[in-house]
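During the reporting period the student researcher (J.K.) took over the structure-prediction task from the postdoctoral fellow and processed the backlog of single-chain submissions. One of the processed entries is reproduced below for the supervisory committee.
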Amino acid sequence: MGAPLVSRELESGTHRLVWNQSISRNRWLGVKLGGIGLATAAVAGLSSWAITAWASPLDEVDGWVVPLTYAARGIVPAGYAVLGFVVGVTIGMLLRRTVAAMAVTLVVVIAAMVGGVFFREQLVAHSTYQEALPADWDGGISLSPDDPNHAIRLEVGPPEVATWVLTNKILNSAGAEYRGPYDPDYCGPNATKGGSGPKGCRDWLTSQNLHQKVTYIANDKFWALQWRETGVLLVASSLLAIFCFWWIRRRVA
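J.K. obtained the following structure tokens:
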């Protein structure tokens, strides 16, 4: 919405007619940024509230900070809506071409949302789970019987408290990530000890003093993450709005 709002008038030249009718450039831009920008935030906020309320039973099971759904919950959608609107106004003012401004705005907003996934995890402190690999651990084992180094990889599920898992590693007694070597007498198709099937390999791995270390963001960080990310988005939007006011006074004729 922000891109055609300004670029259409600048492209057609109708902005000059408005400015010649005792309406200042700042007021013209302020009405567009303030009035329509607030309406955009309100619509996005109400939509997000409705989705959050409807999906609350599911989120209590699956987790509030799951990256796949997090950006559609809480107040963050309103922040992205405001940022997208102001980005559109800024690009429309710079390009003065409606179609081009809309296309560039779409690319920038998508890039901002994708970048937000990687930036988001830096906004709150991470939690750490580290425990010895239990005797009844469950997970996958990957190895190649033809590998002379007997490398092995374990895939063990994280604890239930770890909603958004950042890292999940199996460590040896020295604290390094465990990659083997495994004992072919216990693991692999030619194993002769520990019984048949993968149980013997699992029992042998359990005896190797291995630990699971998981770095994660838990559900109790949801609102802290929401407020901080929204704050970053609003600061970025404010800086772009200030730039727009500067640009329209200095560069737009």
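The committee noted the following: Residues 151 and 180 are 5 Å apart (CA to CA).
J.K. will present the remaining backlog at the next meeting.
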